[in-house]
Amino acid sequence: MYFCTSKTIYMPKIIYNKYEKARISALPIAEFKGRIIVILTPGETQKAVQYLLAQEILGLDTETRPSFKKGHQHKVSLLQVSTEDTCFLFRLNHTGLTPALVDLLEDTKVKKIGLSWHDDLCSLHKLGNFKTGHFIDIQDHVREIGIEDLSLQKLYANLYGQKISKRQQLSNWEADILSDRQKLYAATDAWACIQLYKELMRLKETNDYKLIEVDNNETDLSEER
After folding, report:
1. What is the dihedral of CA 131, 136, 139, 140, to 10 degrees?
2. Which residues have CB under 8 Å from 1's CB, separation 6+?
3. Which listed residue, 110, 191, 195, 196, has the most CB atoms within 10 A of its CB?
């Protein structure tokens, strides 16, 4: 009689210090699957913020109408704030920076995760004064595990093997009505910040990864978000 014993083969997660942009196009698309709620009036912001401040963690991002004139920049048009399953799109060009939104930005209890948030906060400060609350920038953490990339698309590809589409990035964020693709794009970027942060914290805590260092001289001139 023969006895066979099986052994579980432990495989740490493979990540790269630099992820080649050319590999991203072949990856499956990552998209937000939850509810998307567009906020158009100042009165709607209070109820939305009340809901958001009852959460433990939020992902945030902003969008600005692109300017194709040298030296001209539009004000930030959209603030998207996501939980794991619900994303609010605050159309700032309609609502302005309301007292409720100031409460959200000044809150010091709820973790608010963003990417390159210094730039976003500078843009938001142009709409009104507020004291910066509890914000966490993913870019402050990625180098702790050896990742050198800073863009959302490359980070998500590296950590999840999926592609965040950037096709709507240069669309008109001040359009009278946002398209479904615009809304999905905006919600996905905010939601993805939560996923990246959670995975970075898990890898830092468990050390469950193997870093592959790639000699990649490619210069990514596209974007850092």
Report:
1. 90
2. none
3. 191
Taking a C-beta distance cutoff of 8 angstroms, is the pair 186, 64 a contact? no
Q: For tokens 């499956």, what's the residue?
A: 28
Per the DSSP assignment, residues forming a β-bridge with 211 are 15
Q: How far is CA 28 from the centre of its chain?
A: 18
Q: How do residues 61-109 score in pLDDT, each as one tens digit? A: 999 998 767 766 889 999 999 999 999 999 999 999 999 999 999 999 9
Residue 124, Ramachandran bin (φ over 0: left; ψ between -120 and 50: alpha; else beta): alpha
> Which residue type is seen at 13?
K
Single-letter code of the amino acid located at 204: K
pTM for the whole structure: 0.90
